[in-house]
Amino acid sequence: MFQVCTSKMLNVPVLLVLLGVCYGMRDQSIAVRGKLVCGAKPASNVRVKLWEEDTGPDPDDLLDSGYTDANGEFRLSGGTAELTPIDPILKVYHGCDDGFKVIFVLQRFLLNFFLQLVTHSNTSVSYARNYLYMQRRSFGHISSRSKQGD
């Protein structure tokens, strides 16, 4: 009888922890819109991917991917359910100067300038627009031409 009571009592804390984790998961989403430029020309057909970076055993989540259009413009958005604030990164796969594919990664501190609004829902509601110059001499330079909601 004592073993049965102890076994049931141990299940209660486990159940409470699981309920807390389930309740703590919240939908978060992000949207990014931008224009990639190589020299003075738009960087068209460049692969871009929006990831949510995770630590530990949880793998990174691909939120959205696509290609720039003929004007070098792209728009990505996506969301995921996480316990902690999401850590979005933008990966740009390009060969601007020499034809070799290079992966350029915008971490959150640059991404905050380049995009964004992280919302606590499954719908992204706002875009910011900036230009990212891809040539080697100013690789990763982001212009200050920004228009909220454009």
Describe what this molecule looks like in 3D:
The chain is of the alpha+beta class and 150 residues long. 20% of the residues lie in helices and 40% in strands. It has one domain (26-148): Immunoglobulin-like.
User: Radius of gyration in whole Å, from Cα?
Assistant: 21 Å
CATH topology: Immunoglobulin-like
In one word, what is the shape?
elongated
DSSP helical segment count: 2
Distance between the termini: 68 Å
Features:
150 residues, alpha+beta, Immunoglobulin-like, six-stranded mixed beta sheet, four-stranded antiparallel beta sheet, 20% helix, 40% strand, elongated, disordered C terminus
Task: Give a brief rundown of this model.
The protein is α+β, with helices and mostly antiparallel strands and 150 residues long.
Write the layout of secondary structure elements.
Elements lengths: L1 H23 L1 E13 L2 E2 L4 E6 L8 E7 L5 E10 L5 E7 L7 E5 L1 H7 L13 E6 L7 E2 L4 E2 L2
Parallel strand pairs: 1-8
Antiparallel strand pairs: 1-2, 1-5, 3-4, 3-6, 6-7, 8-9, 8-10
